[in-house]
Amino acid sequence: MREAHGGDSGEQDGEHGGIVWSGPGAGNTCYVSGVDRVLASARFGSALVEVVRGDLTLQSTDAIVNAANAELAHGGGVAGAIVARGGESIQEESWDRAPVPVGGAAVTGAGTLSCKHVIHAVGPVWGEGDEGTKLASAVSSALECARALGLVSVALPAISTGIFGVPKRLGCRVIVREVRRHLLEEPTTLRTVRLVSIDEETAAAFAAALASI
Fold it and tell me: What is the pTM of this model?
């Protein structure tokens, strides 16, 4: 077994068909658990976008999005928390999907998590250049994976704003704007998109970004 190093965030085969999306930049009813708090919400087209302060790994959406590195080595942050709660099968499937280019995304099973799938989105490292475009592409790729699977709900973290170093307010603004653009301009099956962080500052940045558009 290969060693797993950290994904991005400092917070935390079969039916999946090995879907990998690297394009350019009717499922379960879902609920917010008792430990979660909805800070803001808005509707874009037929989809509800919610900002939730809570644990991404406990979301009951059809899929959760992992803030991954290109090797899909889930050793720490959100990636490590997902494997710790969902089981090593997530990491084992991920080895078969890697590498994934920056701005792309890949799908694995969810192990013992409440969701059905984990979508691993690879965002940029701050300082590598063109971070906003690459981050928007990672979000778009994750949402396209959800559409390809026919999912109606998905939960996303603040991709690239952990150890990858993208400033929280900037990263959350890019993510919210791309979610809005995708829901209004692209074909989608999604009816609920959650922007989730356990970190108060990040959740507040998501809420501020949603309120500004």
Answer: 0.86
